[in-house]
Amino acid sequence: MKKQTKTEPSTDIVYGIHAVTESLRANTGNKLYIQDDLRGKNLDNIKNLATEKKVSISWSPKKTLNEMTGGAVHQGFVLRVSEFAYAELSEILEKAEAEANPLILILDGLTDPHNFGSILRTADATQVAGVIIPKHRAVGVTPVVSKTSTGAVEHVPIARVTNLSQTLDKLKEQGFWIFGTDMNGTPSHKWNTSGKLALIIGNEGKGISANIKKQVDEMITIPMSGHVQSLNASVAAAVLMYEVFRNKL
User: Fold this and answer.
1) Torsion angle of alpha carbons 108, 81, 27, 118, nearest 10°?
2) Inter-axis angle of helices 17-25 and 41-52, to 10 degrees?
């Protein structure tokens, strides 16, 4: 007898109150599935928004929604969406040029969708100009990323590039200073955050890859005095994004 495996959620859905609301607002929704015994204010708000955006609604049992999301916490709302539209690198550069002291975030081989979603949430809160991720050996925008980002995925431009090294060269040509994160480097509170900044956040386990490290202008470290010697990737990214944001205020 074939062993049953837990089904992975389809990549063309988002779920949860915030992710569904932001996707509907961004006009990327095709069909909305609502748990048939749901009641309350959130139901009315999302149902009205779907009607306004002319998105059809299917009232479905909780079991169906559980199957669609692979058992994830969907809060009674699942939205079938168009394929995620990644931004072009040129769009992010254009947006950055229009800002004073812009920050572009580069994720070097991040694999955890929860980390990616959390980073996007903070990136939206701190007005990051855009996020760049590699096409290969890294997590892309998935339903889990959308849910964890609480809708920020619709507001932060995300570009997927084939070659990170070449992308860093382009950023340097545009006058960006490239910063990395490391155990040894300039303490974050002494970081000069004026000018055009590109900050690289490395893989959860291995950090920044060796070839990319060679292109970094300066390493930044987050001072720590506890027993743990490293922070979660999304937490480290958040600390540094807020350091740049704080200096803009």
Assistant:
1) -30
2) 20
> What's the farthest any 2 CA atoms get from each other in the chain?
63
pTM over 0.90: no
Number of other residues whose CB lies within 10 A of the CB of residue 230: 14
Query: Tens place of pLDDT for every residue, the chain, 249 residues?
Result: 334 344 455 668 889 999 999 889 988 889 999 999 999 889 999 999 999 999 999 999 999 999 998 888 999 999 998 888 899 999 999 999 999 899 999 999 899 999 999 999 999 999 999 999 999 888 888 888 988 998 899 899 999 999 999 999 999 999 999 999 888 899 999 999 999 999 999 887 888 999 999 999 999 998 888 777 677 889 999 999 999 999 887
- The first and second tokens of residue 90, run together, are 């040129």
Q: CB under 8 Å to 65, separation ≥6 — which residues?
A: 15, 33, 35, 74, 76, 78
Parallel/antiparallel/unpaired status of strands 103-107 and 13-15: unpaired
Token representation of residue 173: 């040509």
Residue 79 near residue 53, CB atoms below 8 Å: no
